[in-house]
Amino acid sequence: MVVMKMKFPFEKRVKLAQGLWLLSWCTTVAGAMTFTLGCILKTELRRRGEVMDNTDIHIVPNTLMIVGLASLGINYFAGKIGQDALDAGRFPRWKNFLKPYFAISCFFTVLMLLAVIMSYAMKGSLESSLKVGLRNGIRFYKDTDTPGRCFQKQNIDRLQMEFQCCGNNDFRDWFEVQWISNRYLDFSSKEVKDRIKSNVDGRYLVDGVPFSCCNPSSPRPCIQYQLMNNSAHYNYDYETEELNIYIDGCREALLNYYMGLMNTIGAGVLSVFLLQGSVLVSLRFLQTSMEAVAGKENTEIETEGYLLEKGVKDTVMEYLDPVLKFLLLKNQVQQGAETPGPANA
Amino acid sequence: MAVLPVKFTKTKRDKLAQVLWILNWISVITGAILFSLGLFLKVEINKRKELMAERDIQYVPNMLIAVGLIACAINFLGGKICYDCVDTTKFLRWKLIMLPYIVCTFFFTFCILVGALMCYSMQGEMEESLDIGLAEALKFYKDTDTPGRCFLKTTVDMLQIEFHCCGNNGYKDWFQIQWISNRYLDMSRKEVVDRLRSNVEGKYLQDGVPFSCCNVNSPRPCIQSQISNNSAHYNYDHVTEQLNLWSRGCRQALLEHYTYIMQSIGLTVLVIWVFELSVLTGVRYLQTALENVLRQGDPDSESDGWLLENSFMETARTNLNIIKNLGKCNQVDMANNGDPNINVPCSSKATYGPDNVPPQQQPGTS
User: Fold this and answer.
1) The whole model's pTM is what?
2) Which residue of B has its CA nearest to A144?
3) ipTM of the predicted assembly exceeds 0.85
4) Residues 6+ apart with CB under 8 A from A130
5) How far apart are CA A185 and CA A142, in angstroms?
6) What is the pLDDT of residues A193-216, one digit of tens each?
7) CB atoms within 10 A of CB B288
8) Fewest Cβ atoms closer than 10 Å to its Cβ: which of A32, A64, B8, B148?
């Protein structure tokens, strides 16, 4: 049961070969673009790597880079085969190459689609990674004298100013953490001692935020300390005041940024996937229609081209059989060696 | 005696024409680059318009934009001319236009040079404009309720955050102006009233700075208020503390930024000027070589190309004479009793030979 049979007169074959050559060059450029997009995504993820707990999300740009490089090779060969297809003398030398070539090309094309699906599916993983990373960043904000955490304060400050956000979920995260180091607290002062005693863990907690949470668009000078105390500031109501500090949480801001980036990249890669698929389909039709011409005297006859000779299931089994045989080969030899032993005894 | 003569064989002339055709197209691209550089500079200046006082600095990017557009047009025409110059018959089409074209392009390259030099000379004006503009902007920082100045606070804050600077010359500029609006001052408090009274103009001055002056690289939380008072903060000495606030003044930061941009643009324009001048020299050699070929009559022969036919002084004298005599065609000659009907032949009129030549006898007819 042949899949998608089509008739190919000589002119149509010529047009198909020319179209395939042009398409393969376009897809080569598209493959290079995919590689570049993967590099861009990886660079962006690494830039904020300090606020991410794990690197699971890096599988998306890594896959894109591998697929981009592979498509360069696939399309190079597709162009060469397309060029040789119409020449009856040169086409037979590709005969043995084509079966593994199609298998590998289909694998990488499916991998491209998988990369796009993964970029949507890994949103949850990215969110939990950011949650833990940001929580640690805020906890270690004050440890500018601890090796390995010296630059945590800088990173969090820059992040909050660039993404216009404050804290993990919102600015109240700063109230639960001691973000002023003990080195800068005067322990002889009564106020400091009271605050530390009032807390179970002996931490100096304030209802204040660092300066990087301040919103430059606010019409009044920034109020950083005693945020919940209306009487501490003139003409101030913390419930209605929206412009004083950033109200967005950094986790949401970062998540939106990265999902937007991955959506844009995903749309581009999807179109590259369609291009690549059409290259492979055209090459398959060209190959099958040229095989029918082989050996005949008149090369300008009309032939039939098809996608798959047998049905889909049979073709998949045909390709998997040699792979399975190779993997199971060792077991079969061992079984065969054991049985003659008892027979000879 | 010609200036810098070079002998041109036919192949050499053709090669020159082809090379010049390509170079002219490259010059169109460089003209587009000039245009985009002017546009970029204009955008950069307009971005910080609110921080600059009124000065004549817009003429530099405008000049670059105009020069870029004209360069594109001139080199496009030059490309067409050089493409046709390979064929001597097609050259005849352009023969009359070529000399005025070369003269125009020569004066135009001066404009490019002037554009490049203006980029370097703009620095003084820019510094003055920034100084006055920033001082005004700091004064009106608190006026977020005055129409026209609502966003000055945001602009100054973003400037200080982006360029890592504080105040005009340094952070102490903030001590001399009232940057907290009266709307947010509790006039019933004694401390506020005391401060206002202690100042001649009734301004609320304090030794504090806005949050945008805070240095991100500081290891301790930012100290914004009571900066000069060591005892107000634990383990703090304002004389030795370097990392708390940004130490640079915004005028210096902005000036460095714009100087860097303008020096890069000026250098690029100078390189483009040298390139245009070399293309013009090539076109001049091509024009003189082709004209000499036509004068000799044989299109495949060798010919001379030069920059100027006679020496520089003689050419200048001849041109001045031509300009002087240009108006003389229409002048009435007093020697003939002022009669305008008498024909006075012009020196610049073309002579077609005598008028009384008998018609030629045809061989076949009688």
Assistant:
1) 0.80
2) B219
3) no
4) A51, A52, A53, A251, A254, A255
5) 12
6) 999 999 888 899 999 999 999 999
7) 24
8) B148
